[in-house]
Structure formats: C-alpha cells, structure tokens
Specification:
The chain is an all-alpha fold and 219 residues long. It has a domain of 72 residues. It is built from 8 helices and 2 strands. A two-stranded antiparallel ribbon has the order 1-2. Strand 1 and strand 2 form a beta hairpin. Helix 5 packs across helix 6 and helix 6 packs across helix 7. It is globular, with a radius of gyration of 19 Å.
Amino acid sequence: MTEFIGFIAILGTASIVIAGIIVMDGTDKSLPHAIRSSIFQTVSIMTTTGFATEDFAKWSSLPQTLLLVLMIIGGCSGSTAGGIKVARLAVAVRLSLVTIERSFRSRVVRQIRMNGRVLSERATNEIMMYLVLTGAIFLLSIQILSLFETYFEMDTNLSAVHACFFNIGPGFAEVGPTKTYAPFHPYSKLFLSLLMIMGRLELYAILALFAPAMWKRFE
C-alpha cells in the first residue's frame, strides 16, 4: 500500500507540474490538451510501456528532466515495469534520513518499515547494493557506448543507455519518441540489447553468476 500511494503521488505531482510548465512556456497553449498530454506521457514513461502521443523531446528542459527522473524510478515492485521501482526508492530515502539523523544523534535507533513491516538489515543492504550496482553499470555503459558512437553527442548516448537499461523505449535527442535506433552501429545495438536484458532481469542473474567468484577473489 505504501508503494502504491507513493507511485500515485509521484505520478500526479509530475503530471501537474509538466502540464503547468508546457502551458506557461508556450509549448502547448491549450490547457486541456496539455493536461491530457502530460498525464499520458508520465503514465507511459513511469510504467515503461513505451507509448508516445507527443514529441516530448521538443519540450523544454524541466519537463524532460522530470520525465528522466520518472524513467529512473519506474513502476511498482512485482510489476513488469522497468526502473529501480518505487519501493526501493522509498527504502533508500528512509535509510538515508535515518543515517543523517544518526550523524547528529548517535544513540537513536530507528527501524526501516515498509507496509507496516520491519525490514531486516540484510534486505536494506541488498537494496542499497542493487542501487549502487545499477548506478555503476549505468555510468560504465555510457562510456562503452561512447566508444562505438563517436558521431552522436553525449546526450544521445546517455539517453540511449538510460532508455534501454531501464526498459523505457523512447528517450531524448536522437532516440526520441519520433526517432529510432537504426543509425546506431551494430555493436552498439548488441550492447544496448544486453543492457535491456540486464535491466529486465534486474541484475540478479548476473549477480548469481559472478558474485561468488568475485567474493572468493576478495577474501
């Protein structure tokens, strides 16, 4: 229930803000159309269904940034949506707040709860490990794709990795909702396909294969 409430809150807030911005900056002069467009695109992006009714790559930077954040967050756990999932984000935020509080009040003991249940230390550690690995793989993937795609600018390479790793579909710049991945090098397409698989499996298969060997090496 906590995750669902958070999901609706994020979705509703982003839709309202994006609708207001694209009306104020003149991108869309019709308020009803702006509301309809913003709701559809935020739902499509956050649930990672990949549909688009507007070329949001032509929107101003702030709406695009909000959509970028929704791409990272993704849907709810247990769904087929991509992204890091709202539940992991909620746990990470709560854990960060507890850590900040402990830096000032070292004797404070607080438990991380989700849906009324106390999360074990192992569960919170696994979530934080997943987020760290996701960030590391994301940053490394941008560098690898840039080796193959020297023709495209950084925003295109970054958006391509973002869209594929989090299983979004459309991105920004040259991989926007009206563009395709056809101009990319064949090696780039293979690499982006691998990222899609990694994002869909949420790294668990990779960890199952390599984590034991890595652990033995560092013992």
